[in-house]
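Ticket #4471: structure export looks truncated?
Reporter: QA, pipeline team
Priority: medium

Steps to reproduce: submit the single chain below to the structure queue and open the exported record.
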Amino acid sequence: MHCVKCKAMYKRSEYQLIKRRIEEPRKFIQMVMGPRQVGKSTVVKQVLNDVNLPYQFFSADNVPASGSSWISNCWAAIRSLKEANRWDCVILVIDEIQKIANWSEVVKMEWDKDSFFDCNIKVLLLGSSRVMLERGLSESLAGRFEEIRMSHWSFSEMHDCFGFSLDQYIYYGGYPGAASLINDDDRFSQYIQSAIIDASINKDILIDSPISKPALLRQTFELGAAYSGKLLSLSKMVGSLQDAGNTSTLAGYLNLLEQSGLLCGLQKFSIDSARRKASIPKLQVFNNALKMVFNPLSFHQAVADRKAWGNIFESGIGAYLASQGFSHRFAVYYWRERDDEVDFILQKKDSIVAIEVKSNAEKRTDGLEKFKSLFSPHTALIVGDGGIPASDFLSMPIASLF
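Actual output as written to the record:
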């Protein structure tokens, strides 16, 4: 395992993009968004240290949700500093911006004021709840911002920074903060539970959404994470959960969990969107660590158990595809007709990619041939036994598939 100090020095690919945008003349608000604990603040601080411009960094994490005047106070402070120091340009950074109610209206007002008075303040906003951010961006800030989407760490990043093997990445997932804890199962599990699951549910979902049964939301996540990589109908989920209400409640909860980068229900690929929406979801975590904290098998037990590893392996590939889908803006589905199935279908505009995951030689691939004959995908490939090695697939630039 590499020294964990490497994390502070390791630069993710978004570093160059953020740096380039910050060095351009003031044009748009830059919105850095992505799930918790993927390094948004770290990469922004790396950029701030390397660009030759003064800046002020504020965090809304512990500010009351009603404190929209706090944003104006941050802006007033940076305007005063700019004037007092006669800076030509200054960078304003606000972290966890979505915590503040009506944040987008205040940001719009202050940004437009700077634009009107030719005040050269460049703005970087960071946030971890997609649903709250996208609502604010679409309502108030249309035409004033650019998104920079950050996803979970890939195998290449975890390997380069922490020395993870492929099996370690599949089992432990891609959270940089947990990398130094993988030799202590209890500490690893506690970190995932408190820093990611609890924080995402309590701080990102419950704070903004009127949820009548918070315990049910948590149970929905735990059941869905345990079943990641498998099909499970909403009606079966209702039957497995206490006080579950109806399937539309669970569908709403799954949507909120997806917006927080925790868990999604992949729909069945179909040309007909109505049939897609009516399909049984294939549950999928965005990071395999979220599945493994609910799994009784240790790392060595899981790798030795071929049947169990097959599901863990497929969920790990799916987690990578789901999180890449968010940052690279493509949709992820599965496909199934009677006995024929394909694990993952990717779609970006009119381009379709079919991916079958094989963790052992027994698994049939008839479904891939059937899908190819029906839909003529741009690319069709097998990942694992008899196909592209998983380490190679996880290291490929995902855009090259389309």
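Status: closed, not a bug. The export was complete when the record was re-opened. Leaving a note from the reviewer for reference: Residues 306-328 form the longest helix (23 residues).
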